[in-house]
From TrEMBL:
Full protein name: ABC transporter permease
Keywords: Membrane, Transmembrane, Transmembrane helix
The ABC-2 type transporter transmembrane domain, residue ranges: 25-224
Cell location: Membrane
Lineage, top ranks: Bacteria, Bacillati, Actinomycetota, Actinomycetes, Glycomycetales
Topology term for the membrane: Multi-pass membrane protein
Transmembrane segments: 37-56, 63-79, 113-138, 150-172, 178-195, 238-258
InterPro entries: ABC2_TM, Nod_factor_ABC_transporter
Length: 274
């Protein structure tokens, strides 16, 4: 039934746009209905970041470490909150049965997923930016700006959203997605440069960190902002091409898993349950 509804003649642009808008409104309403949990989580994360920077600085907040690590922790917050919005809501909707009902929409099945991704962006990006700005003002962190940094920043957002979509695609069928998502985001927090710049890591650990989302983008941003490198230089050293390839691989894997897991969940009768 869901496949027939998805390919019905009425599933045009206007229907898809209406479903997309409804998905965004629903997702934002769900998140804004319980703001206290987000505030507490973010406050704990901020205190943990500043506390670890205090330890890393041996009793002081070092001005040479804070700018690069603030960019990295901001990327982590975007990753964490976008996953929380998209993956946690998807799990709850599967348990309540509303996800199965959404598959009866005349719009293509990927439209609701794009709506969830848009909700994750609209909610998580302001949270990450605001939290970063508050810390920069409170502690006096000075981050220089160059317009060429927009490119790696946009690629950072694309990389995070591709990873978020991949996690949501896994969540359609796997009951272990909560543990997997927590593990991977914890690894990102430890290794993407939020605690100390990647240049201070052993080479083998830095290589492992570059496999995780956000790390390559953060390296590119740091090169542009703090080293004064041009985009051509960041391209020629291989960082930008690897970042684009990494994002494309996450996107392709997420799209494949979404189609596969949705089809298997329908065939197994497990759309509304794990």
């Amino acid at each position: 039934m869901a496949d027939l509804a998805a390919t019905a003649p009425g599933a045009g642009f206007r229907t898809g746009a209406a479903v997309l808008a409804a998905e965004v409104r629903k997702g934002l309403a769900n998140q804004l209905a319980h703001p206290l949990g987000h505030i507490v989580t973010l406050a704990i994360s901020v205190m943990m970041y500043l506390g670890l920077q205090y330890v890393m600085g041996q009793g002081e907040l070092r001005a040479d470490l804070l700018p690069a690590t603030l960019i990295a922790i901001g990327a982590y917050w975007f990753l964490q909150y976008s996953g929380q919005v998209m993956v946690a809501d998807l799990i709850e909707e599967k348990r309540s049965g509303t996800f199965a009902a959404a598959l009866m929409s005349p719009a293509p099945p990927w439209v609701s997923m794009i709506g969830r991704l848009a909700t994750a962006t609209v909610f998580a990006l302001p949270v990450a930016v605001l939290a970063s700005l508050v810390q920069a003002l409170a502690v006096g962190i000075d981050i220089p700006w160059r317009w060429s940094a927009i490119v790696p920043y946009l690629l950072l957002a694309a990389n995070i959203l591709a990873f978020t979509f991949l996690m949501a695609a896994i969540a359609i069928r796997s009951p272990m997605i909560g543990a997997l998502h927590s593990l991977l985001t914890a690894l990102v927090l430890m290794l993407n440069g939020a605690f100390m710049p990647l240049s201070l890591y052993p080479e083998w650990m830095a290589a492992a960190a570059r496999v995780l989302p956000t790390t390559l983008a953060i390296e590119s941003i740091n090169r542009v902002l703090f080293d004064g490198a041009s985009l051509a230089a960041v391209w020629s050293d291989g960082t930008l091409p690897l970042l684009i390839a990494h994002t494309a691989a996450l996107t392709a894997l997420g799209a494949w898993l979404f189609r596969r897991n949705r089809r298997l969940a329908i065939a197994e009768g497990r759309v509304g349950q794990y």
